[in-house]
Amino acid sequence: MKISVLTPTYNRESLLKNLYNSLLKNKDYGLEIEWLIMDDGSKDDTENLVEGFKEEKKIDIKYFYQENQGKMVAINELVKKATGDLIVDCDSDDYFTDEAFKIIKESFESNKNKDKICGMCFLKYDEKGNNMGNNFKNNETTMFDLYFKEGETGEKAIVFYADIRKKYKHELEKNERFVTEARMYHKIDEKYKMICINKPIMICEYQEKGYSKNIKKEFKENPYGYYKYFEEILQKNMKGVSFNKRLYAIKHFILFSYLTKSKKNLRNIKGIENKLLYFVLYIPGVIKSRNF
Q1: pTM score, two decimals?
Q2: Domain that holds residue 61
Q3: Are residue 125 and residue 181 in the same domain, yes or no?
């Protein structure tokens, strides 16, 4: 069985060795490793660094280059090129725990006969060993339920079954370069669930110039994708969604409606409670959006 590790990277020469070394530590657990790297127009020495890794011939590494188009385009292209049975995204500032692939393989073997499952969701830790969110409450769930109904926080590490993952891609709007991964995850939710395993497989260290540290900038540069994301959320069955999460979704829907100059359309909002909340929040939301 093979696992494809997908890494989009941009000027991260100084960080890739951590990920490479973590893959080497995991190469003896019975999973064939394929590491696919998409260099998104780096200006540093990333290509030569990766060539050095390839010359060592310790794992299968495939390097690709594209003119800077953003992380989501890079991932979409790498998914097409992946040949593994399992697919996992791993950013260039992340790396795997020492027994990550042992945990992945054992979890796959324990759950491989379950129907309507798209993959496995694991914990992410920071470099100090702290869980970046909460432990899972359920053994199976959707990504929407996980964050909107079950009170989950923080990032997770997701290992997809390749045959399912290849049916989906990150949908970008109006030539934007970024959209939250959750938009694609929610599309997958319509047909499949995730197996949840309360074990860490990935370590994350956020960078000052990374997406998560510059979310306001990402909102401003990619408003159409976020508008569609929150529009799609408000068209879902919100039974069981907490009031705070409803508030979060409607406030952001108003913000991105303003930023994209989209016409107010209550047909985009499902449920009387959500429509009423939208009416209450609309004017203060627009006033606040003007100062965003």
Answers
A1: 0.94
A2: 2-213
A3: yes
CB 150 within 8 A of CB 241: no
Read off the CATH number of the domain in which 15 is found. Answer: 3.90.550.10
Strand 193-204 versus strand 32-39 pairing type: unpaired
- Please tell me whether residues 125 and 209 are part of one structural domain: yes
Kindly give the pairing relationship between strand 86-89 and strand 156-161.
antiparallel
Cα gap 143→169, rounded to integer Å: 16
Residue 173 and residue 98 in contact, taking contact as beta carbons nearer than 8 Å: no
Closest CA to 142 of 27, 241, 60, 284: 241
Cβ atoms of residues 171 and 183 within 8 Å: yes
CA atoms within 13 A on the CB side of 241: 23
Residue 252 φ/ψ, nearest 5 degrees? -75, -30
Distance CA 122, CA 193 (A): 14
- Domains of the chain: total: 2
Q: What is the pLDDT of residues 59-100, one digit of tens each?
A: 999 999 999 999 999 999 999 999 999 999 999 999 999 999
